Structure formats: structure tokens, C-alpha cells
Automatic annotation (TrEMBL):
Name listed for the protein in its UniProt record: ABC transporter permease
UniProt entry tagged with the keyword Cell cycle: no
Superkingdom per UniProt: Bacteria
Transmembrane segments: 20-37, 77-97, 103-122, 134-150, 178-196, 216-236
Keywords: Membrane, Transmembrane, Transmembrane helix
Organism: Flectobacillus rivi
Amino acid sequence: MKYILSFPIFNQNTQNFKALLALAWGFFPFITALLFVDSPWFAQNIFDGRYLADILTLVYFGLLFKHSDAHLRKLLFVMIFLSYLGELIFCNGAGMYDYRTPYVPFYVPFGHSIVYATGYIFAHTSWAARYDKVLRPIFIVFYALVFVAVGYGWNDHFSLLFGLLFFVLVRRKRWQNVYFFIGIAVFTTELIGTYYNCWVWRPYTYGGLATANPPLGAVFFYGGGDVLLDKIVWYYERKIQPVLT
């Protein structure tokens, strides 16, 4: 991995933030169209859109990668492997949810990377920095209401537990708004993906813990992956890259 990240393509510090911001806003219609194309309805009534979904995701990922600086390019790349590992653990291993096909779709790890980048880009805008202290309590109240609402309204004990752990995680990271921005992209993806039946969460997991479809408390696992991703890239940039250069 360290040798791959040392390639020149991962160390170009030019960035087109306007293009990145346009892609971040475009994420919402993009993910809606992408998951519709991969839906069972689309496969049954038009054609199996899985390969088209793969192509669309690779193109969108390529655009993000093209306009990113060296740091975000590394984050995008490493996130692919972390998300695939997460799929093996939580989907294939723990059996928390199932895709419409027996295997994890090719586009999913790249999609996770796009979800991460969307939140990252919004969190690094000038207005997010300017209103950082204003946004933080708004995010905290919003997320708390979401976890409580789905926990009691949808009988989603999973989200009550892991929503609490999400707050513990973000508190340890000093309430950085980047995790809240990423969470918005996660909520959007989970709600649309389950609406189109691209994947389905099982009603019970972890020995009988009631789970909605989707359980919005799953944002905790994204947050944990984001923390690990940040540590990996941080370690590379500060410990390994200086030695290689």
C-alpha cells in the first residue's frame, strides 16, 4: 500500500475545489439515480443495471479523484479497501444486511468512498468553517432527535445503541463537524438504497437486537471506519512519506 501511495498520481497538490463542491452537491441526485439503476424494479422491468451502476460509480469516483488534492486522493483510495473489508465483516460475516444479489456489488466500496468524500468536501468549505460553532449544536440536536425518533418510532433498538456510541465516538474526536456531514450522506444513501431494495437490513442482529430497515444508527460504523481511514493516511503522510522522499 505504501508503495502505491508514493506514486506521483497520489501526490499532486493541485485542487479544483469548485468542481469538488459541485460534485458534492451532485451526490444527492447521483446516488438516487445510481441506486434506482441497481434496483430490483429496474432489473425486472428494463434491464439488469448492475454493470451500468458500476460504470457510473467509477466515472463519478474518477471525477472526484481528478479534482482532489494529494490528501483527499489518498483518503479516497484507502477508503475503497477499508469499505470492502467492512462489507466482508458486517455483510458476509455478521449477516447484518443482504444485497439483492448473493455477492457484494463491485460499485459499493467505491460508493462508500464517494459518501466519505461528499461529507469531507462540505466540511472543508469556507461557510462550514465560518459557522463551525453554530453548526455543531444544531447537528447534535438533529442527530439525537433522529436516533430517538427511529429508536422508538421504528422500534429500532440498534439505532438507539449505536447512535449513542456514535456520539461517544464524535465526542472523542472533539465534535468535529466532518463526521456529521458524512453522516448526512450516509443517511441519504441508506434511506434511498433500502427504499429501492438494493439491500435489506435483517430485522434482528447481534443476538436479537431489533433493527429497522435501515437502522440509521449504522452511521456509527461509518464513523469508526472514517477514524481508521484518517489514522492510516495520517500515519503514511507523517511517518512513511517523509522517509520515502
